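Project standup — Tuesday

K.O.: blocked on the structure for the chain from last sprint. Re-posting the sequence here as requested.
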Amino acid sequence: VVEVECLCTEAGCDWHEEGQATTKVMKISFPSMTRPSEDGLIGEARSTAESSGDLWALNHLPEVIDSITFPYHEQTTVQGRLKKHLKDDYEERVMRVTFLDKLQPLSDLEDPREFAQVFYDVLQIHQWLYERVGILHRDLSSGNIMYRRKNGKVYGVLNDFDLSSRVRDMDKGPTSKQRTGTRPFMSIDLLNPDWEGGHLYRHDLESLFYIMLCLACRYEAPGVAAPEPRPYSQWFSGTDADVLDNKSNFLLNALGKDLPVQTYFSGFERGLGDIFREIRVGYMLRQLFHSNPSKPGTSESPTFEWTTMNEHVSYAMMRKMMSSFEGRPLETRWVGNPDH
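H.V.: unblocked you, prediction finished:
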């Protein structure tokens, strides 16, 4: 990803504002050929916002200026030779160049309350995408949560839809041979090679918790790393198996210590603790269910709702914990399905 400017002097150029060239972003990616394109998904979301009257959502979505895809057809290319040798075991990719409006990274924020608003905005737009557009992001990370500022107000933006999928297509099977996510922020399920339940929306909510947790515990201030040893460092350096083991112990160890939230981010401590306990209870209930699975036709048998782990990891739970900061309400842009 690099910053670019238009060198033309044409009147009416979309890259100019009031006659001055503006900085845009050029992103070069190599997504799977079978995945829906990022620009297509973003375009679908923005069109839905405009046609449905949900114009608030436009402030929380990236804006694509143009996108060009270059397929690899020639058998003489490296990809062609790999495909010929590995056959169906090789996942063909394309090169895609996408131009987007520039957004600001989390590290540019300075007010903890603005961090909280950005995270709450991302929760809201994530739910809107899932319920109104039928898109699941599937790769929440600290680098994919950004913001834009308008008239002095901050708006959280959910960025990077390279690994996103349409919900309706996910029922037909995976669109890639690889599980999606950024390892430090991936849910326990998706790190587990035995998990066969697919990518659920609660996995993205678990990722959002890890993003907020790592910010509040690993940084003394925006862009200023806490002294070593920093909390949760194994999540950033270990293998999938290492991270799975460490996160499982973190979530399920009943003797675990309080969350090591840094003083600067102390306003997050209560909310993070509440979310942590809900996720922990959800996983513990699932363990109990596995030890005593339900038997069809018996009313006394336990039941378990997998999508939200008995509503312990749901949009409704996260909204309850994230809609205020230090006792004052944050900006609610949209209220989705209360049953999710």
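K.O.: great, moving the ticket to review. The chain has a mean pLDDT of 89. Residues 183 and 313 are 20 Å apart (CA to CA).
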